[in-house]
Amino acid sequence: MHLIYPSLPYEVRTVDPLWEPECAWAREQGWAVSLYDSEAPRLWSTTATAEPAIYRGWMLSAEEYELLTTRVALRVSTASYLASHQASGWYDAIHPFTFPSAFGTAATLPDFSAGQRYFVKGLVKSFGTDSVVASQEQWMRLCRVHELLATEPLFIRQFTPLQAGSERRFFVVDGVAYGAAATSLPDELWPVLALLQPRLYYSLDVAFTAAGHPVVVEVGDGQVSDLKEWSTADFGHTVLGALARAIQS
Fold it and tell me: At 85, phi and psi to the nearest 5?
């Protein structure tokens, strides 16, 4: 397998320290490893290989990811990357298994007439503690503080209380969900795996509502998802190992 990790800016031979443990683990398996400086952009590899690569690093915009595809053959296409990375790529497919949501813009004021609360985020990232809004005043403050343009696309989600500490990150490879320390995906969410086919590799954040029901919090592209509760070795043996087998089959 060929893996690409981020380098330090303008130091293309030095892996970013955050990704160094995983990169070192991959090299120990004998896999080809390349480093990529997305700011330059430059790609550096010590091993010549023509096999398609899997990127593992910081989030990339659509334009940045497409630029990487011109430097190296990636196993995950730009379209597939965005289908997991951006909420607009996955919400419609699995809406019965996640929070009721709508897409709008900063100019789209939600209905607060009955005391509704919303969790507001971009297509990829939230706005931290400012994301929960319960009034027009809070909405306007969010737009002002984060300097949102009127046309800024937003993912507006019904606020749903969750059980504290219940969120877990699963990685899905070729339709199979893997949890840290062999945690199993709740049975009620198994249909999600079929609905998100044929994505090769993505993350699935799952939690329990205050009422005890499992729910998908969000989907992400596995290439740019951090490990959260996973250890490097567990992630490597379980997820990267599954990826290597899927790519070779």
Answer: -75, -35
